[in-house]
Amino acid sequence: MRAKTLLPLLLCVALIMVGAPVDGAAGKKPKPDPYRFKMVKEIAHTPVKNQYRTGTCWCFATVSFLESETLRLGGPELDLSEMYVVRHTYPRKAENYIRLHGNANFEQGGQGHDVLEQVARFGIVPEADYTGMCINEKRHNHGEMVSVLKGMVDGVLKRRGQRITPRWLEAVAAVLDTYLGVPPQEVSHEGVSLTPLEFARDVARIVPEDYVEFTSYIHHPFWTRMRLEIPDNWTYNADYCNLPMNDMLRLINHALENGFSVAWDGDVSERFFSSRETGLGLVPVKDWEDMTRKEQQRELTAPIEEKEVTQEMRQETFENFTTTDDHLMHIVGLARDQRGNPFYYTKNSGGTVDRKFGGYLYMSEPYVKLKTICVMVHKDAVPADIRERFGL
């Protein structure tokens, strides 16, 4: 009888222990967030996904952007296949690498226009029809596949001075099919069989030529189109619209305020950028290397003062490589902190586990001014005067 009497008591103790605070002493209240945000405008978007051990942020961000575009255009909520796009991008990248005798980028990175190019050529399909998961892992991991592909194209180039056969590209395709799967020729939507091109046009409502990329650097004339000199622009695309920094920010704000989301490419290597611990992108007045050790270790307890970013600062950090083409993400909203400062609510592609805001983060206005490499928007999201100047 005594054992039966003690059992409920022990269960209650166990439950209390499970629910007890684990952060410091018992009863210690969690520390308040240094930044508290109020959403001003949020654009309809799909759930966060996880690129995991791949360098395919360019694809995850742009596909997420296109999923929001489908919603904006009155289409269904879709989960589109990033790996279908990746599968069709690598042969194009391999051809470019071989034709330039290896003097080109053959890494995992890319740009938003790479997605649109493949959609224009091959369409797109739902995630359920092409997961790209043909290896015995639960999440994407392209390390081995990329090593094999790089070894193949470099092996072809070692025959320099001799004739290259036309079969090497078939070998590349076979490797991709082995690791990612054979791309489907048809998919079914609401009982109707469609080709990937038909699905992209009729269901996802994607018109690739309707999207435009913008940047802001003074080594090219403003209000002209330019080639953005970054390694991941491996196609040497020279169709980036170059405009002053404040006009680029005005464009981003105009898009968001009018219900358009923004595909964003920029630098995330700064000490005050964290998608895990703080979920923030900030530009403190004092640079990290100019801070004392005490300042570097100081805990963030309230919003900090940030730099007044200028066009010249943008250019300097681009030229000295402190702003580099690190990562693409998807801006899906405008918010303000408790002091009224604007922030950009941004969807990342690193999953939701152990992320401060469940896979989202907030970039300050100074951060976006300084660290944006380029953005992509629908042409209808562009202010009328900018559209006119670029002939959009």
Shape: globular
Number of helices: 12
Let me know the number of strands.
13
H/E series, N to C? Answer: HEHHHHHEEHEEEHEEEHHEEEHEH
- Mean pLDDT score: 91
The proportion of residues in beta strands is: 15-25%
Helix content: 25-40%
- Output the structural class: alpha+beta
Distance between the termini: 84 Å
- State the major sheet: 11 strands, mixed
Radius of gyration: 24 Å
- Ranges with pLDDT <50 over ≥5 residues? 1-25
Commentary on this structure:
By secondary structure, the chain is of the alpha+beta class. It has helices at residues 2-19, 57-72, 82-99, 112-122, 143-157, 168-180, 196-203, 245-257, 293-297, 311-319, 365-371, 384-390, and strands at 38-42, 187-189, 192-194, 211-215, 224-226, 240-242, 262-266, 273-274, 280-281, 327-336, 342-347, 360-364, 372-378. It contains twelve helices and 13 strands. The strands form two sheets. Strands 1, 4, 5, 6, 7, 8, 9, 10, 11, 12 and 13 form an eleven-stranded mixed sheet that branches. The chain has a two-stranded antiparallel sheet with strand order 2-3. β8 (273-274) and β9 form a beta hairpin. The relative contact order is 0.16. Mean pLDDT is 91; it is low at 1-25.
